[in-house]
Amino acid sequence: MIKREKVLSVRDLSISFKTSAGEVNAIRGVELELYKGETIAIVGESGSGKSVTMKAVMGILNSNSKVNSGTINFTSYKNNEKHEFDILKLSKKELRKTINGKRIAMIFQDPMTSLNPTMTIGAQIMEGMIWHYKISKKEAYEKAMELLNLVGINEAEKRMKNYPHQLSGGMRQRVVIAIALACNPELLICDEPTTALDVTIQAKILELIKDIQKKFGISVIYITHDLGVVAKVADYVAVIYAGKIVEKGTINDIFYDPKHPYTWGLLSAMPDLDTNDDKLYTIPGSPPNLLNKIEGDAFACRNIYALNIDKRIEPPMFKVSNTHYAATWLLHENAPKIEMPIELRNRIDRMLKEVDEDGKQTALTIN
Amino acid sequence: MESKQPLLLIKDLKQYFKISRKYTVKAVNGVSFEIYPGETYGLVGESGSGKSTIGRSIIRLYNPTDGKINFDGVDISRKMSQKEIKYLRVNMQMIFQDPMACLNPRKKVLDIIAQGLDIHKLYKSKEEREEKVYRILEKVGLSKEHATRYPHQFSGGQRQRIGIARALIMNPKLIISDEAISALDVSIQAQVVNLMKDIQKETETAFLFIAHDLSMVKYISDRIGVLHLGYLLESGTTEEIFSNPIHPYTRSLLSAIPHPNPRVEKERIAETYDYDKSGINYEKGIRKHVEGSHYVLATMEEFEKWKK
């Protein structure tokens, strides 16, 4: 087995925001690990803290935030030199110089607002390279053209002089990806990269990011609420709820053998093209207000499987397998045996069967 | 169902926008479809295909360039009389995409929802106005206390409910929902879609559901129209479109839906469709009948080729 090199390790991270209404505990002890060349998807509802976690990794948290505890360690292997960074200890200036863009790059949700409307896209791609690597304008121009070709934009020379408003949404997101790749980052964070795009373009952009990842061996973190996207791109999945990771594992663990009731709910809520149910499943209630201190399991009040203990003590991470962890008391040895809802069970069985049939079909065509 | 009189009848709708003396954008090119009372018609297509333009032309935010729009027996594509305008404004309502942008941040929820009532003077006393708003709030799953709050105090899903409440309070016959759920989370999307379905069962309101997410459209629609570059390429019942897509564009749209099944999804590459390279000319196509209510826009040869 090839040795996996750790790129990012987040330990017991806790972040709160000072607002006019009081202190909001947005992140309550997040643990995360990412290895070189792998992809992790962070899944959760809006307000669950997935974007805040990644902003902390980038070191671009808002000024009213406070890191209460935890560490973020980032290991760089640039030029075959191992270099460790403790991101939370770096000053803003150091971050700008060594991390932002150069080693960790980010793709934001809305390509319209993340591009500068007053600069040509060529200048925007070149900007980072010139600043970080002090290369000449000509070199940067050559590299920018290469990048535009790489992300699938034709007539690169003409496009270099275009302004963002002259491009369509899908093209703009391609430019954003080109900018993110300009400084050869080792970690790419995609914050809902396709939410603002159409399904047809979404598929193309995801395939593009996947290709690029393979080519350069970079690690990717996806932040998304769309489980279809997760299924397409991720190796590992972390499900986050109310500022805490409630279940993590490989993609097969999460999709075929979910253990946490919240994950059950998320999977059931996905529209399924194969059923003709009259109603979509919804998770009852709404996420807890993080202004208040949370007692016990944050998901307990929306959980029909909640046990008595859920209201008093927060469940620890239980180990299901070497890769699979979930924070629910249902996994405790004294807990009653509760299986996932029957509808979901059926659906997973059907999905597994679909794979089998497909497998057979491909086998037949090969013969 | 066929015997029923259509609520909305659109025939050869054309909507052009003149950009300059030489350049005209043809956003909608001869689209025809009809919506029956109490049904949901889903209009899908990529951005720039003209689906929102159609919605806006129907509710007369634009003046249609050509074609007929017949709503409940009244022709609304030409200049209307004051009485007709008033009738249209009461009986056709719209829900917009961005629930933050479409609610006035300086007004309380009560006043936002009651605005339609105020304009058309549909209440006798202040108490009646409040009563009506409270009833509608309850219907969309909010409570009385929410009426005195401002839009920014709500989450995205709740705000979309306010948008729905505002449309519902006029008891419309048709609601146009323009990408009303695209900006929401998956679990919230499900809540809003369920709400729309419940409301429809109760009030028999017809919906024109504009979206690019086919999986949600499948859940809510009775019939679907697929739109590309201003042409209606394929239309039929949800069943017909999903089980037997004819047009290559429809197929590529269907293949682009991500499946929540990692083992299948990892290997799958979405079918691509490029209009310029496909050699299809939409202008030459005519409406071909496939079966039942299933139609496709194609020429003779294309139709034979695709059907195989």
Low-pLDDT ranges of chain B = none
Indicate the proportion of strand residues of chain A: 15-25%
CATH homologous superfamily title of the largest domain in chain A: P-loop containing nucleotide triphosphate hydrolases
Strand-and-helix sequence of chain B, N→C?
Answer: EEEHEEHEHHHEHEHEEHHHHEEH
Beta fraction of chain B:
15-25%
* Oligomeric state, counting identical vs distinct chains: heterodimer
Q: Largest beta sheet of chain A, briefly?
A: 8 strands, mixed
CATH topology of chain B: Rossmann fold
Largest interface (CB < 8 Å): A-B, 45 and 41 residues
Q: What is the number of helical segments of chain A per DSSP (H or I, 4+ residues)?
A: 12
Percentage of residues assigned to helices of chain A:
25-40%
Give the averaged pLDDT of chain A, no decimals: 86
Structure description:
The complex is a heterodimer of chains A (367) and B (308). By secondary structure, chain A is an alpha/beta fold. Chain A is 36% helix and 22% strand. Chain A is globular and about 70 Å long. The model of chain A is unreliable at 360-367 (pLDDT under 50). Chain B has a single domain (8-307), classed as P-loop containing nucleotide triphosphate hydrolases (Rossmann fold), CATH 3.40.50.300. Chain B has 12 helices and 12 strands. The mean pLDDT of chain B is 87. Chain B starts with 7 loop residues before the first strand and ends with a helix. The chains are: A alpha/beta (367), B alpha/beta (308). Chain A binds chain B through residues 45-47, 168-169, 197-204, 207, 225-232, 234, 251-252, 255, 265-267, 269-273, 278-283, 286, 351, 354-355, 358, and chain B through 46-48, 155-157, 185-188, 190-191, 193-194, 197, 212-216, 218-219, 242, 252-253, 256-266, 268-270, 272-273.
